[in-house]
Amino acid sequence: MIGQWLAGLVRRRSGRLVAAAVGALVAVALLASIGSFLGASRATMTQRAIARVAVDWQVQVSPGTAPGAVAAAIAARPGSGAIVPVAFAKLPALTATTPTADGGSTVQTTGSAQVLGLPEDYRATFPGQLRTLAGADGGVLVAQQTAANLHISVGDTVTLAMPGRPGVPLRVDGVVELPQADTLFQTVGAPAGAQPTAPPDNVVLLPAAVWHETFDPLAADRGDLLSTQLHVDRTATYPADPAAAYAAESGAARNTEAQLAGGGMVGDNLAATLDAAREDALYAQVLFLFLGLPGSVLAGLLTAAVAAAGAERRAREQALLRTRGATHRQALALAVGEALVVGIAGSAAGVGVAALLGRLLFGSAAFGATPTTAVLWGVLAAILGLGVAMATVVVPAERAWRAGRVVAAGALLPSARRPMWVRWGLDLVALVIAATIVWTTSRVGYALVLAPEGVATISVDYWAFLGPALLWIGGGLLAWRLTDLLLRRGRRLLTTGLRPLAGPLAPTVAAGLTRSRRLVTRGAVVLALSVAFAVSTGIFHATYSQQALVDARLTNGADVTVTEPPGAGVTADAAERLAGVPGVRHVEPIQHRFAYVGTDLQDLYGVRPGTVTAGAALQDSWFTGGSAQQLMDTLAHTADGVLVSAETVTDYQLHVGDPLVLRVRSSSQGTPATATFHFVGVVNEFPTAPRDSFLVANADYVASVTRDASVGYFLVDTGGHDADAVAERLAPVAGADATVTPLSTAVATIGSSLTAVDLSGLTVLELGFSVVLGAAAGGLVLVLGMTERRRTFAVVRALGATRRQMAAFVVGESVLVTVVGLVFGAVLGGVLARVLISVLTGVFDPPPSGVAVPWSFLLWLAVAIVASAGIGSALVLARAMTAPVATLREG
Amino acid sequence: MTGERVLVDCDDVGRVYGSGSTTVVAVSGVSCQVLAGDRIAVVGRSGSGKSTLVHLMGGLETPSAGRVSWPALRMRRGRPDDVGVVFQGLSLLPALDVTENVALPLVLSGVSQEEATERAMVALAAVRLTAQARAVPEELSGGQSQRAAIARVLAAAPALVLADEPTGQLDHETARTVLDALLQTVDRIGAALVVSTHDPMIAERLQVQWEMRDGQLRAPAQTGAAGGRQ
Hints:
The complex is a heterodimer.
Chain A: H1 2-12, H2 14-52, E1 57-61, H3 67-75, E2 80-91, E3 93-99, E4 105-109, E5 113-118, H4 122-125, E6 131-135, E7 141-143, H5 144-150, E8 157-161, E9 168-171, E10 174-177, H6 181-184, E11 203-207, H7 208-215, E12 226-234, H8 242-260, E13 264-268, H9 269-308, H10 311-323, H11 328-362, H12 371-403, H13 420-424, H14 426-441, E14 449-450, E15 459-460, H15 463-489, H16 491-502, H17 506-515, H18 517-556, E16 560-563, H19 574-579, E17 586-597, E18 600-607, H20 609-615, E19 623-624, H21 628-637, E20 641-644, H22 646-652, E21 659-665, E22 673-683, E23 694-698, H23 699-706, E24 713-717, H24 723-734, E25 739-742, H25 743-749, H26 760-788, H27 790-798, H28 803-839, H29 855-882, H30 884-889
Helix pairs in contact in A: 1-11, 2-9, 2-11, 2-12, 2-26, 8-9, 9-12, 9-18, 9-26, 10-12, 11-12, 14-15, 15-18, 15-28, 16-17, 17-28, 18-25, 18-26, 18-28, 20-21, 26-29, 28-29
Chain B: E1 6-17, E2 24-35, E3 39-43, H1 50-57, E4 65-69, E5 75-76, E6 79-80, E7 83-86, H2 98-108, H3 113-126, H4 142-156, E8 160-164, H5 172-189, E9 192-197, H6 200-204, E10 208-213, E11 216-217, E12 221-222
Parallel strand pairs in B: 3-9, 3-10, 7-8, 8-9
Antiparallel strand pairs in B: 1-2, 1-4, 5-6, 10-11, 10-12
Helix pairs in contact in B: 2-3, 2-4, 3-4, 4-5
């Protein structure tokens, strides 16, 4: 019997089955795609984290322990690769003598210094540890800041001040940057809070042989100044999930420490990076829940709306079955059979579509995830598809059976009594609670994802999900209430609005819409929710992309940055030369100095306040107490003004207007120049500046204080176009010593936050699905809603209505549903986007000044929905015009 | 008979549904005329083609063969504009109230909303449904629904009224009441009436009975004065 019934359904009700299966397909494909993508993203985060680490382990060899023995013990552990010994020596100072313009010379002396001894193969084994800025890759190398402090460059002499012994002069072969100086000079074994606040300012790197020749004689009486680390490259295979990889890695490090039995302590740089990655992974999971889940739920709702559109026919079929003697169990079995057909077909097609999307967008049916992950998500999504089918087919069938009567068309009319949720105002209650939760959870300092450094457990405050969830529910119900109100009370308004379309029929069409408001409202609300999903997703992703670019610009400084070597003496006049390169729109010179605030050495940037806001694309969110332009105006009016970081304001209890005495270093003065600045505002971010503490002041004032107008780097604005090509053209103009870096370099290298993860795939997926959902809601639900009233249209046609008059009925409803859906959806989507950005502030780095609205996407979305509704209306109209009698005969 | 007004002229009309093995011949080779003032019952078993014939007469269906014409009726966009139809079963629009339902054909034919409503109220009074004027179809009984459908015909005052099984879903007593209303209506507006029915009680009250059998029109069983011709 079930077979016959299903065969009949497939033959006679294929449209109903296909429509419901398409709804399940969208839900399954969305969940499977985003789930697989999430799995792949987590694996990518792990891989990226591992790739970012220059040296996986820094094992501090305990005094008195032979490094060779420790190295042998580590080599015996599984997952250990190359092990390279690095010697450390602490010195009281470095000195250098440099000639002056008047034929004399000056002697520069630094504070304490670190001298490292590196074996020949060190750079080959750990290529990320050193970057050559000038001179040779090997020999005696000095760090960039050390070269600046001593005013030396390649070919000059640096003297190591040896305690109790004569100084050791060495010729400098190269100037290098130490990208991971913080970890290189960490105190191994010290807790996070006890680590040095900054790496040493003065660093010299020697070949191991030179180091030993120089420092071995010190071992006997000043062994306390010398130490040895073993730098280890790990070759272990880690789980794809960052949290699991962190657990495995930190466990391996602790285990090795135990095996060393006090012979050494492991500085686990790899675990520290994975520690940060697992927080990013959790944010990715949160993103999935905030952005992916609503889409899947919406697809389920769409399927339910599709199934509900066949309620009348289903009820008639149930009644017929009952009159033919079918039992409740048999009727239920038939409904389950139908649900299985819909669910299996929809799920299979959905998983297939997801695999196809994966192959098209990511070159892999599994979206780059492991087969296990992809299969897991496929199975989960298929279960969801079956669940959706059961809920949308079996539940209405069961309800119809229990009702025990044929549902007449009139039963689709709204009942006089308003639903309980309307009378109780549940929509408004939900919105108020949502607003309260969002306000609570988005306050400054709130952490959605809590991942304490070094602690194995990480957590998400799922309470924060309640705000957007209630906003979805409250917004949807409010849209229902308002649409219902418009249809119930706004008949005159509707008539006026419909008159251009329906002419003399407008009052009749309006009356029909008013009394069909349950169907009309259902269509409008499903469309509104679909639009809200698309709008919120679109705005979120646009803002996300905007901030990713801002992050990259912060790191690189501009579309292209030309960095001058220390002591190069290039002045702002060179900007004109660079500006002449094709593709360059503007060149902004920035002075770069170092200044002591008390004993704290900070970066000092000298800027031209009149041009830097636009020239360096400064964002308002980078400043506190005013916009970027306002603070630059303040700086322009205060010649000795200085902007300082919030941390410095707190540390030194500064108030606006307070004098601030700085000792500023320059390349033309041996000793720091002392000058008084005045604190005028707070700066949090600045192109190329470090994240902790730095200073921004007027370039003219900095030049006059230091008697040095040389520029540290030039920020080149290309208008966002062809940065790579412009960088290539700039290189010969800037000179061989200058370093030219396009924005793409920064995009490829930054990796400290989620914005570094390329989520363009997720964007394409979500925006694509949101358009599909919107178009489906605009067309499918509308068409099926009208199909439910095919008898109504058939009667109107049989009564002599012309095509134009029929169009008034069909298009009138279509226009109403589309306009209401678009308006409510746009408003709800806009609010949701703001809430998501507010709650997920931690995802953005730096926080956005405002939301980015993807106008072109929204336009295409509107076009897709209107086109879908238009095509649907045309189909309904064509059907109503051609076969009214056949429809009437169906009973 | 040559001076009588011919409202509908069916000339060797046929209507076929489907194709190939699923072909159903609903009407075949029917030639007949409906004249002004006729009272005709088209009788026959279920599936004999009587409803199809009525629909063909109203221009609601297009013949597969032969020709249907309406010599004495106004035409609008290829369809007779002077025909009122009472359908089998529920034919009121559930989203409109009774008055709006009755006024709808008038509005569709270009009558102003106000005038259409006035005429609808008069028609409803004629079928004793004034009390239900603002009710929606869901609130009416089966008999009331059909009387409202008859009022819809009455309001438009067509020259020809076609009723397809108008009492098919009603009990005997209600059917009688509905038929009374229908006959009074056509008398009032002077229209011709063609009713398809399988109910002998309905058929007996009309002057002429045309019998449909397997899609073909058999000899009329005349019961009263003149009524159409074959």
